[in-house]
Amino acid sequence: MKKLVIIGQGPAGISAALYAVRGGADVTVIAKDGGALEKAELIQNYYGFENGISAKELTERGVKQAQSLGVKIVKDEIAGIEFGADGYSVKTVSAEYEAGAIVIACGVSRNVPPIQNIEKFEGKGVSYCAVCDGFFFRGKRVAVIGSGKYALSEYGVLKNIVDDVTVYTNGDSPAFDTANIARDGRKILSFEGEDKISEIVFEDGTRKAVDGVFIACGSAGAFELSKKLGLEMSGNKIAVNEKRETNIPGIYAAGDCTPGLQQIAKAVCDGMIAGTEALKYLKSNA
Predict the structure, then answer these.
(1) Which of the listed residues 10, 149, 188, 194 has the most CB atoms within 10 Å of its CB?
(2) For 144-172, how does the pLDDT look when each residue is reduced to its tens digit (9 = 90+)?
(3) Which stretches of the chain are DSSP H helices?
């Protein structure tokens, strides 16, 4: 059977992992951290804990439970997902994992910087996927917006495709070695152009001519992954059916990144359905 990769180690991701691994799947969970749940101090409305439980402890218990059943937990930052000849390739900042199916369960944060006209130029020079769109900027001048490892990963893709690529950290300190990287730390005010983007305007009034801009702020969450893959969206969340299937075969979504209540009980249910359905998909395509 091909492998299942789950992105996110919150209740939805771990629930999916538990059901899939018990069904015989080879399961890898990839997450940078415990996500938004870890920020909650005390959970008092989840079944089975009469005195409540800290979010940190609940997350840790779930991870240990999954590991005890053979689930591999990888602490890494997702850089993107690509289509492969035999399924999918999940890329992190330090490795690559092949998968026959994927469950996206990494929350709903949208890492889009507050830059004027950013939405106006989406698809008109503003992209969220270097692997997807870098080809269209061969021989041109592009910018990567971001200050973390995700931005560095996108830079690494583009430097082999375009003539000129610069990372703009938008006023933030870079979280990577900049010794061999073209970098600009100025704060960005807006993107300008007519039919497509042609300039970055900085808060100090200066301008930089560009042919394209790749947004890579923070980590690649559900929104960024959806942009890369072409997943159908429902508002700012991933559209799924009752089986938690997306519009792309073999890719499922569960938890807060899908429509509905943002509650642990729902996330666990979503994960159970996604993990079970992903297992069926893997078996039928073995």
Answers:
(1) 10
(2) 999 988 888 889 989 999 999 999 999 99
(3) 11-22, 55-68, 130-133, 149-158, 222-229, 264-284
